[in-house]
Amino acid sequence: MLKLVGVTKTLGGQPVLQGVDLTIPEGKLTTIIGRSGEGKSVLLKHMIGLLHPDSGQVWVEGVEISRLHGHALNEVRKRFAMLFQGAALFDSLTVFENVAFPLREKLRMKGPDVTDRVEEKLDQVGLAGMGHKFPAELSGGMRKRTGLARALVMQPEIILFDEPTTGLDPLMAKSIHDLITSMQRKFGFTAVMVSHQIPEIFGISDYVAMLKRGKIAAMSEPAEFQQTTDPEIREFISVGGTVPLRAASPGG
């Protein structure tokens, strides 16, 4: 579904990605972990074409998107949805209008078709009857659920999650992780998630990959990943992802 080959990227004169080779399995949930500043968010932005690599290739089901622009790139992006850290909701729009926005803007849907699709997604994420509220009236968890509903409403093949539980307490973070997992299992989309939630991610992911010093240092199923002999990775996961591996860079 997704494949990165030798991807490099320098930002602000600082090398961030230094030859990333990564294949994302189709229909699975892959979580990318790593020290803050290692470039995990930068990596996600390359997958959806928000950033272009300095060198290397990004493939989406046989289409090399690294040098695509305009209409050609937008056609590929129709297969994606992305849930940002802060949910990226429009404060001036209600929950319903936020979720309906991509249907109206991208698919030009109108009337009952929009209403039915939006209400279905709100119900699936536990927000039935909340469509009239504005983002300022929502808790952090409800904002995340609204963002997830908006991601799901386009029925994408691929959803990228950039730190979806940032700012939530442990119980709320678990509920969001559980919701993402259940939606992924229900609809079978390919999911890529960036997260610092160790060890929780080992219980929800099909695969775990670690970005270290600009490259993928390891990728495997969770049980195998936790048996790594790499001393830095072992230390990183043993302290919950808080141990620094190197000085932070502008990667995110």
Largest sheet: 6 strands, mixed
N-to-C span? 24 Å
Strand arrangement within the widest β-sheet reads 6-7-8-3-9-10
Shape: globular
Q: What is the helical fraction, as a range of percent?
A: 25-40%
Strand % is 15-25%
**CATH H level of the domain at 2-79 and 156-238: which superfamily?**
P-loop containing nucleotide triphosphate hydrolases
Mean pLDDT rating: 91
- Segments where pLDDT lies below 50 for 5+ residues? 242-251
| Count, helices | 8
Strand segment count: 10
Name the CATH class of the domain at 2-79 and 156-238. Answer: Alpha Beta
CATH architecture of the domain at 2-79 and 156-238: 3-Layer(aba) Sandwich
Structural description of this entry:
The protein is α/β, with parallel strands linked by helices. The chain has a domain at about 1-80 and about 155-240: P-loop containing nucleotide triphosphate hydrolases (Rossmann fold, 3-Layer(aba) Sandwich). It is built from 8 helices and 10 strands. The strands form 2 sheets. The protein has a 6-stranded mixed beta sheet, sandwiched between helices. A 4-stranded antiparallel beta sheet has the order 2-1-4-5, covered by helices on one side. A hairpin with a 2-residue loop joins strand 1 (about 1-10) and strand 2 (about 15-25). The chain starts with a strand and ends in a 14-residue tail after the last helix.
